[in-house]
Amino acid sequence: MSSDATTAIPTIPLPDAPAPLGQEPAAHGLGTSLPQAEARAKTEGTFPYASDLWAEGLLWAAILRSPHPHARIVSVDTSAATAMPGVRAVVTAADVPGAATYGRRVADRPVFASDLVRHHGEAIAAVAADHPDTARLAAAAITVEYEVLDPVTDPEKAFAADALHPDGNLIRHIPLRFGDPDATGEIVVEGLYRIGRQDPAPIGAEAGLAVPRPDGGVELYTASTDPHTDRDLAAACFGLPPEQVRLVVTGVPGATGDREDPGFQIPLGLLALRTGCPVKLTATREESFLGHAHRHPTLLRYRHHADAEGRLVKVEAQILLDAGAYADSSSESLAAAVAFACGPYVVPHAFVEGWAVRTNNPPSGHVRGEGAMQVCAAYEAQMDKLAAKLGVDPAELRMRNVMATGDILPTGQTVTCPAPVAELLAAVRDFPLPALPKDTPEDDWLLPGGPEGAGEPGAVRRGVGYALGMVHMLGAEGTDEVSTATVRVMDGVATVICSAVDTGSGFSTLARQIVQETLGIDEVHVAPVDTDQPPAGPAAHGRHTWVSGGAVERAAKMVRTQLLQPLAHKFGMSTELLQITDGKITSYDGVLSTTVTEAMDGKELWATAQCRPHPTEPLDDAGQGDAFVGLAFCAIRAVVDVDIELGAVRVVEMAVAQDVGRVLNPAQLAVRIEAGVTQGVGAALTENLRTARGIVRHPDFTGYALPTSLDAPDIRIVKLVEERDVVAPFGAKAASAVPVVTSPAAVASAVRAATGRPVNRLPIRPQAAVAVPNS
């Protein structure tokens, strides 16, 4: 391998910031709708995704995966694959030089299965060849003798089943105890709820390129969302120190979960190290479905107690998360589910049991709103049951119980952040309802099922439902949240260096806005991300808006001080008396007026800063503790039309009111909310990765139905409450997770209103939406 091998990889250019076609450049700074720097490249098809990467002497990789969800591996014979012309390397568990297992939270997942297969699609071996077809044929030529075992696919049976893993089947148990266990209410309602397996379904296939380095290390080019963690996991498996492994983030098309499973990256690096050549892997859609983590399927049992006025007295719940074969983020997901099991309501007494268990089902992990989405669907169904039993309007019942700042969560933590839940609910409740569709042939596309459907207008019923949701921001339970950023200014151009990955959250745009507002510089670039930069942590829970944005702001303010101090000293005033506006520096009295460029005078200024929020603590043995840095809230009113004979559902409108803290980029915020609502509609109606005894059925976009533009409802953002969170930089809150959490519950509530059916399962099956007689 020549020392200049890495130069054959396409460079990742610093993005420019062009104005939208046909428009003048937009105003800059916080609060403006600055367009994304990558928008034009993505719309014109010139954006370099990871699957577009190329290197001289490239080899292609393929992975052999298990066809069984549970089996003992008797033998693996790679001789036929190794003998095939064009095959350069075959690696199995025996060829992993370092740690045999990995995991972002718990290192329990093998790079390659060696003794046991624990889920359908688990990696057994990987092949590198000079052509992708050769690699796939060689992988298929590997002979594996299995002793097929009975899979454990029912999470309720996992407690008594034989251990599927050396760590056992129980990953975590949280017993939350809050208040008086003997408290009771005059009105009691119960329910059993099931939430399906939602896939993050990244439209861009997982892909990556590994290139060996002259020093014996390797460089990985992938669309990672947590590059430093992925680098460290890979280095441990390679048996290399972290400084010999460099991960370059390239071509991130967007993510609603962990964008790149290390299970794709580690085999790539092993093959590159073995062959001494660059190796590329682009996963098929089937491999993508089988390999990465999904939302936890969840079983929930609830009992709500209320007084005669409908005010909550006690909530009892049991929550069981199916983690699949490995732990991944199940412990964190369970903590969110248990902590938010009662929702954004005042509950004097709460007793919740939560478990996360291993099964032989596909692995579960981080997907936007994990834990919180599942319990929201259940507690809001319970609120609908209470309203029906009391004969109270569902919105009014919720209004009698909503949480506010100063109330206490069932974990014992006081809600110190803004919690305008009543204001959000009132906004969606009072928003005008959409008009009823006309009963005319030209409008039949508005019927559930669309044009050419079998439905009849006379069978269509309209339903209106409500839901209130909440999520936590940043990590929880003692996670050390920290990010580092550098701002450098030279020749009138500012560059932001921060390893925060923009997965569609808009961080790169926000970073530009922060520097523009702080320093008055129009041209701001955000450098490409790699692990040579200080860590910024994962792209989850809105943390880059808060932590990484806070680091950029602090660094920019330090550069601002460096810029203004000489001027302030010269004129005998403090820097606080100087302001920067539209590229000009002026003093309060007008004596000083100059441009930023003139003040720079050819100098290079730079500063590095960190942002670390206040610490949190783990939940104790009773589920108590200050586990969360901050909370965000949302209210949604769903309007649906249901064909009560066929069970077809059309979501007509979603009215959204959200607690956002501060609007930093209006257009970007609206898009984030709309995308979150649409993802939630998918979870409510269509998205369910089905399995049969652990075997994934139809791992493709034919069998797994994502909502299309025709399925997306009218989304009305009726109110954004800008009550700033004083502990957050800029006062802003996470934007995209809470509508994902809230919208499935709102859709289910509306279907209940239209049909009179309980609707206790997501996604909603047609038979569950067929109305009861005389409803």
UniProtKB/TrEMBL annotation:
| InterPro entries with a match to the protein in the record | Ald_Oxase/Xan_DH_a/b (IPR000674), Ald_Oxase/Xan_DH_a/b_sf (IPR036856), Ald_Oxase/xanthine_DH-like (IPR016208), AldOxase/xan_DH_MoCoBD1 (IPR008274), AldOxase/xan_DH_MoCoBD2 (IPR046867), AldOxase/xan_DH_Mopterin-bd_sf (IPR037165)
Question: Can you tell which superkingdom this protein's organism belongs to?
Answer: Bacteria
* Position of the signal peptide: none
Gene3D superfamilies given in the database record: Aldehyde oxidase/xanthine dehydrogenase, a/b hammerhead, Aldehyde oxidase/xanthine dehydrogenase, molybdopterin binding domain
Ranges for domain Aldehyde oxidase/xanthine dehydrogenase a/b hammerhead = 44-150
**Identification of the protein by name:** Xanthine dehydrogenase family protein molybdopterin-binding subunit
Segments carrying the region annotation (Disordered) are 1-39
